[in-house]
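Protocol step 4 of 5: obtain the predicted structure for the target chain.
Materials: sequence only (see below). No template structures provided, no constraints applied. The aim of this step is simply to have a reference model before the mutagenesis design in step 5. Sequence pasted as it appears in the construct record:
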Amino acid sequence: MSVSQSQNYDSSLDKVLHKRSDLHLLRKLWHISTGSLGLFLFSRSNNEQQFWGFLVLGIALAGFVVDIARARYPMVNYLVIKFMGPLMRRSEREGLSGFPFYALGVSLSLFFYSRHIAILSVMFLVFSDPISSFFGVLYGKDKILPNKSLQGAVAGFFTCYLITLFYTMNHATLGNHILIFAVIAGLAGALSELISAFNIDDNLTIPVISGLGMTVLNHFVKVFP
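Step 4 output (structure tokens):
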């Protein structure tokens, strides 16, 4: 490949990729829609939770293989970005994308947590992550960590809190313990998103850390059996 061809190649890639600071609504809609579809299929399936864990783990491993191939073969990278570029960030051009971490985070939740906790932790990932990012990009004036704002964190907390509240109202015995559980779970969800500021993909930290927090919490504020 000549220098001019390489420059044209690089330029064509940059045109379709978004910066982290962009609103990037298409990525957020993709994030929510694919996650919602997965949750729907899981909730309607008669297969064991472990089966779904292995299925999603396989998807994660396939994603890592594709990313490794992108790093080694420029043409593979070009083809992937040509078709998936509108959903990707510029930081993912030469490195790992968020997709395999998304699948890995979901699979780990399915392997390690009870059904209700796993569903909640994945719902945090599906909805809280894009919503906190949306509010962080639009209104995030008060930075509390690199790439993290107070406004985004508050939006993440309320999203996780409301998800937990409505879910437990339909799957647990009603009482004040539900409200306590929802508030602390909301804090765990917001914290799990903030931890990603330390160079850990939030697609991994949100379901794994929030799920761990809710598992411990459920021992003290018993909501799920």
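Step 4 remarks: Strands lie at 143-145, 148-149. The radius of gyration is 19 Å.
Proceed to step 5.
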